[in-house]
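With this grant's support, we have settled on a layout for protein records. An illustrative entry appears below exactly as we store it:
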Amino acid sequence: MKTRFCSVPPRGAVVATAAIALFSACAAAQEGSPNVAEGQLLIGANVEELLRWADTHNPELAALGYEIDAANARIGVAGALPDPTLRVAFMDFAGSDAPDDFNSMPGNGDETEYRVGQTFPWWGKRGLRKEVATAEMAQARGSREASRAEIHARIKRAYAQYYQAVGLKKLNEEILQLLVDLEALAQVRYSGGLVPQQDVIRVQVERTMLRSELIELDTERHHAMSALNVAMGRQQLEPFAEPQSLREVPAELRDNANFAERIARTNPQLAIQSARVSAADANQRLVEKNRFPDFTFMIGPTRVDGQIDSWEAMVEVNLPIRFNTRHARESEAAAMLAAEQERQRAVESQVAGYLQESLSALVAAEKQEQLITDTLLPQADLTLASAMAGYETGQVDIDTLFEAQRALKRARQDSLRAQVTQEVRIAEIESMIGEEL
């Protein structure tokens, strides 16, 4: 877990007071929490908790789950026989030879025929229709997994921005406390005639600028919380717990030799496209089956003068002789299959390219954070400690001290942003893989 909101300079006569102030600010920040109703349970201390909540409460995922149920129900319908038919023919119910001259009610004519029929598609058509429906259900499953991966990625990005806004605010609050101590020191030195009053005023101006930045950071924090609520499908004003940490870079990302094979198995977009290819292939074979006729078998009695006189059986066959129409449909199905196959190759290429781009950016952000943590931050800490000690003894002016303070602030900001960049890149990679690392 990555947590670096607080950093304290080395010991020194004045720096010790600043360190105590910084520790106090860090402790207050860790203990603080949003204003919520008593007893209300907050989520958001870590991103895993948010992902679990979204999996069970996000309305978009719930809707896609129902679509999968609907697609699954269509499989049985696709493989079923069509409904049987009932035919009733009234003979001699009108005309000069009709018993009652004209009466269309059943039984009033000399003869009534009843026929029950059932159509049977050519062998293999029902199985192919079921295969198409099964592929469409696989598309629905892939769509849900793709949406789930995208929602997870949005949550992770929003959480990282929320973490960054909170971290930058804490950093400014710590620097603000440091400036309070610096103002007290400048007041003491001004009272002794060692520095001009301008030093005190400039410290006060610097504090005012930091307060202005805090207002902007509060706005950023609010926007990040809103984006997080949108990604999770919650109400806009729902609060979150204070973010505690970001995730470490998964060890498996350092050895990405098997990623290509893993993505081919788990990437949601590839799964959707593979299902589309399967559906187009089955549909092409189904269209080719239309060269062969369907059969309708009918059976029923003939009623004459109120009694069943005989039984009849018939076979009805459709004649697929519209060759131009059939050839056009076959050409259409073949073209659609070829299009889906080409689209699958395009998706494979795009996913591989995006993966390499995200991996490279992740490595760069990790190296940048390590450089800042191992080199730049210690140097900035020492520079600020030296500048404060020098200002206390009159060896450096206020400008040197301000520059050292700003350098430390920039270093800690850059370190935090590098951590956030890593989290965002990890989210992108997990979205492409379709699984959590």
